[in-house]
Fold:
Amino acid sequence: MRFAKPLLQIVISSALMLAQASAETGVQLSDINRSVDPCTDFYEYANGAWRAANPIPPSMQRWSRRWASGELAKDQLKDLMEEISKKHDWPKGSVEQLTGDYYGACMDEATVNREGLDPLKPWLAEIDGMKNSADVGRMIIRFHKYGIPAPFGLGSNPDVHDPNQVIIDVFASGLGRALNLPSARW
Structure:
């Protein structure tokens, strides 16, 4: 499963590149509202026709061509992942098999609801059984092996003083961040 996250990123990147390759570029003349004087309200002149034809959906706080294309890319990626996860004869260890299994397992709400916390009980028992700092260290190592950056994470970034060098990036973390919860309140 340690390959699942990088493989999912590859699939997402590929889908986004394909979506961008076919996208229109430049000024879309059909977006222009020619009934408005550009010297009075240039924004309405340049975008008015598009905004009138594409009102902000109730589920969104804002809307634009860029936002709409992002939502379309997410929908296309969802369709692609669902198609990949439905097929079970991919070659073992292939990108398709690994990402399909990973996505399928994450989206199988019936199984998740049925099993509840049972799959986590061995981990919770280990955490509950920790007695000293060495136990804590071993648990941190185990978390990191599974891609859970708790209580800190490690990464790499270009050195801001010398972009030719890559340096380690240590950051504060926690289970909320590792599990991608919607906000700090969770």
